[in-house]
Amino acid sequence: MHTEHALPLLSPIVAGMWRMAEWNLDVAARVRWIEQALELGIHTFDHADIYGNHEVESLFGAALKAAPSLRERMRIVTKCGIRLTSAQRGVAVQHYDTSPAHVRAQVEASLRKLHVERLDLVLIHRPDYLMDATALAETFAALTDEGKVAHWGVSNHTVDQFALLDARHALRTNQVELSPLHLAALDDGTLDQAQRLGRRPMIWSPLGGGRLFTGEDAQAVRVRGVMQPMAERLGVSLATLAYAWILRHPSRPHPITGSGRIEGLREAVAALDVTLSAEDWYTIWTASTGHPVP
Amino acid sequence: MHTEHALPLLSPIVAGMWRMAEWNLDVAARVRWIEQALELGIHTFDHADIYGNHEVESLFGAALKAAPSLRERMRIVTKCGIRLTSAQRGVAVQHYDTSPAHVRAQVEASLRKLHVERLDLVLIHRPDYLMDATALAETFAALTDEGKVAHWGVSNHTVDQFALLDARHALRTNQVELSPLHLAALDDGTLDQAQRLGRRPMIWSPLGGGRLFTGEDAQAVRVRGVMQPMAERLGVSLATLAYAWILRHPSRPHPITGSGRIEGLREAVAALDVTLSAEDWYTIWTASTGHPVP
Amino acid sequence: MHTEHALPLLSPIVAGMWRMAEWNLDVAARVRWIEQALELGIHTFDHADIYGNHEVESLFGAALKAAPSLRERMRIVTKCGIRLTSAQRGVAVQHYDTSPAHVRAQVEASLRKLHVERLDLVLIHRPDYLMDATALAETFAALTDEGKVAHWGVSNHTVDQFALLDARHALRTNQVELSPLHLAALDDGTLDQAQRLGRRPMIWSPLGGGRLFTGEDAQAVRVRGVMQPMAERLGVSLATLAYAWILRHPSRPHPITGSGRIEGLREAVAALDVTLSAEDWYTIWTASTGHPVP
Q: Which intervals hold domain NADP-dependent oxidoreductase (chains A, B, C) (predicted)?
């Protein structure tokens, strides 16, 4: 029997809630969806304050309110720091805000909307040029002391940006984009740093936002051209192969799903049983870059 | 009453002497100019051996000789390491020189030209590919021991270049370019490193070399288009707003003025009373890059 | 009289064996070639498992078998980690492999082919995205304990890639490309890191792969245009000047020759007696970039 404290912070696959508002599920269906994810071994749910135009956390929270016993079986990740353009909120130009007041207000709003007493992991969503690392770290420490947040991390931060905040408060992860169609994190030091420090990254858009399946640009066509027969040879779906390609990285990443279909979660989990050969991994890399390794 | 030792190394705004030779001030006017800067709270004066074709330090030194009591009210920064093309000096190709002999010779020349016994801060002007960090650090230590230089720093150094020399001798600052029209230091790690290490940067060309006011390129037009009405709303000049934009950065930068007009100094100092909102700051960033934040 | 243990790991100039298979030397000629290199003070020989389509180590090893007393007068460097496309080896797509099994197998093959009991330095040839630094470092330690490899390093690794593996097992060097026609390592932090950590780099392609002598592209023409008269003024060959340009770098690089001609080795060694002035060094840099230093 799982208890909240016994669960690892991140399940191998993480369920991304980004598009939950588009799934059009009523509360009972949301509860059932969460239960099915948990049954698949996906116990971490990735949120952000702004997902679904600020609505997703409330949708998820309504399910937790309806089925409170779910809470102790899961880990909740959320993010803050982006202020979307919004007439209602009086924001004319989208920007970032990592001020102590904003981070505290968003954390407390997330707690309310999610109907939980503690967030397991909160990430700074984007690197804020105006981040005062000392002030932010003090806010992290205070919210931790208050029991409102267990762990902290960042998303989309460069090596130097990560090093700055991590020097003030230990960060658990950097959530970054990686897919067979988006290789930047392999070369810009992000994943080298993650592996060096032992901070397993979270991976967003592991399927290239769907471009892997339907993109007609040259890169997508090349990548699909090698991945489709490879998936058939391995007896897995194209999506499973993409997840396996990410899971093969030695920084031990946690891919985040985007799908509302339980089958989509199942395809991600299936990748945990696939270990790509180095040659298969580089065959996909070679198709993506359009040239062989040097 | 100020004393040399009680003054901080860098005043919030630093007076840049780069163009002093063009101001056509006689000695008495130079003394008066310095006094007015001091009265505005600008007690740090930024030089380089090469400014004004090697003449600026001497012009400033003549003022100090005429009014020696100024010295204890100020901090003097200078730089060395560039060898300008010069038939007279036998330099056919402009290059860098951070050899112990050259740095020592330039420091001693700066002391003579400025009519002072000690330089408060000396910067290596540009990153020299041929810099032997150990030998240079030994020279720093020797000149410090001899009482000729109080502190050391660099200018225009990358993160790795700064880390190299800083590992041998603690550097006080990295003087870099930043303005609403020049954003590189925000993204290349320079300011992240400065904040992480607590080494407040100095900022050159905070007004984009005048392009902010008169540039007809698309970027300058966009930036002026948002800054002009913002300055009016805040009740400050365009220049003051540009300084406030820089001062808003959490690395706590020291902008360097370029103007010979006392009014130009006053516009910089006025920025110390302006605190931009994050949205205003990002509105300028957005106009400069031509796209919203991700 | 030299002994293996008294020799420095790397002689100032290192003999590159990359093209040895093309030199068409019989065993006796290979022995003589090695003796001549040693007589010139070049006691380090740079190999890789894949050089000459996997044949060079065997050619060199046959010479060592024929003249076993050479071994204690030299240091042997080799590399592994690249899997070339090869029908025979069942590799359809060129890729990298730094798995413990592959590294161990290649080290043991190099020992057999070279007819030696220990490799003095083994480098990971290219940065492998799939490198598990902990597992690789354990393999390094095991092979060191077994007496098969004395020291470890890497080649073509970025600053972050070097930092990752170096955090698990101390690396002796990063072998990178540098020449008057290829300046990237000067700017990307590689040589700053090398100097900071005191890990003298090895330099491949110091003559730009021959482009320095015969290239008709604008950069090669510009560089030759300043180097040819400079070499004449200094009384050295163009090749010697190129080696001297590299040796002038404060990271204290070890250039690797590529030539099979003993005269080619002599031209490299001659550079040890040349110390370029900073102005000469930057004159070449300026010709290479096509613009003066800032």
A: 12-284
